[in-house]
Amino acid sequence: MIVGLIVNPVAGLGGAVALKGSDGPDVQARALALGAVPRARARAAVALRALHLRRPEVLVRTVAGPMGEDSALAAGVRHEIAHRPAAPNTGAADTRAAVAALRDVDLLLFAGGDGTARDVLDAGPRPPVLGVPAGVKVYSGCFAVSPAAAGAGAAGFDGRTTEAEVVDLDEEAHRAGGVGARLYGTVRVPAARVRLSGRKTGSSAAPPGSAESIARAVVASMAPGTAYALGPGATTLAVGRALGLELTPLGVDVVRDGAVLARDVTEQRLLTLAMSQVTHGVLSVIGGQGFVIGRGNQQFSPRVLDALAGIVVLATRQKLAALGGRPLLVDSGDPLADAALAGHVRVVTGHRESVLYRIQSASEELP
Q1: Which 3 state secondary structure label does DSSP give 219?
Q2: Which of 57, 67, 178, 183 has the highest count of CB atoms within 10 angstroms of its CB?
Q3: Would the pLDDT of 26 be above 80?
């Protein structure tokens, strides 16, 4: 078996520094200036280790340097170079060229986000593909639920495939608060869909007033002198409205005693606040996927989670029902931090309404 690997080395740069994406050289430069740390290569290495553990004989065919070779070296897997980028600073054209160079592999792994998935699709991949989640926004259905799950899924690939969606966003509109997600196309993926994250779905099916009912419950439970970090999502925006505040769409705002304490915070700013006072995280569930941590809210890093006094999870009953019994998921990038949140969490579903629901690390094998 030959598995191809392409890594977008700048994927996910903008998440922790509140840029809500990583597309474009200007955004990438700004993210690095703000202290962002590349994470795609490390997450690809996690996938390769999981693959090698199950199938040590597999050959990884990849791209030179940070587009794959570095991850293969870090994982200690047998590999060969099939393509070398023309310049050190790689972009979408390099991803498309790499897809063409890896046309003869049995399965193509790619590490990145939705923009990377779109570049892979545009190149017309011949083999089936599987995404290693490493971007800020990972709404497409062609990604595994975690890097480890991607490696396990690749190891278990038996040739059977199905179609999965590639969803893309206009990042400029995304940063301005307009989600604007659209279905861009489909790709062939391994048929074991249980390890795939599934396409993000919206909250349009929720009855009118559901978010407002949840918001009233959250506001009623807020303690004086305590800070609350409100993550992105329509439900948390409703919490802001209930407080009479206009929050940052798709950002993380910190409120205390009915006022905004800090707006659109970075991971570092959130950590500083959480270490200086009692702070709770208020997080919504991504519809269709079940993620609570690790998708669009990378400000809640492992060290921030450790500093928080606790988390409050929000979801409508309809959103939980749509999961079909699947657990809520955490993918912070640190297995220990994810494991610390595993078990059951109380999910606020309405005014004076809540349910206990299972939550687990996305790296755990799903049934």
Answers
A1: helix
A2: 67
A3: no
From residue 11, alpha-carbon distances to 40, 138, 148 in Å are 6, 11, 17
DSSP notation for 37-102: ---HHHHHHHHHHHHHHH-TTPEEEEESGGGTHHHHHHHT--EEEEE--SSSS--HHHHHHHHHHT
Q: Cα–Cα distance between 362 and 338 in angstroms, integer?
A: 8
Quote the pLDDT of residue 247: 92
Cβ distance 267 to 301 under 8 Å? yes
Quick one: which H or E segment has residue 240?
Answer: helix 234-242
- Cα 263 to Cα 234: distance, rounded to the nearest angstrom: 17
| Average pLDDT value for residue range 113-135 | 94
Q: In what order do the strands lie in the sheet with 253-256?
A: 259-262, 253-256, 227-230, 279-284, 310-314, 343-350, 353-361, 328-330, 291-293
CA distance 275 to 215: 26
Distance CA 358, CA 360 (A): 7
What are the two backbone dihedrals, phi and then psi, of residue 131, each rounded to the nearest 5 degrees? -85, 135
Q: Give the tens place of pLDDT for each residue, 164-183.
A: 999 976 545 554 555 556 78
pTM for the complete prediction?
Answer: 0.86
Please give the Cα distance from 320 to 221 (Å, whole number): 22
Residue 287 tokens read as: 């519809």
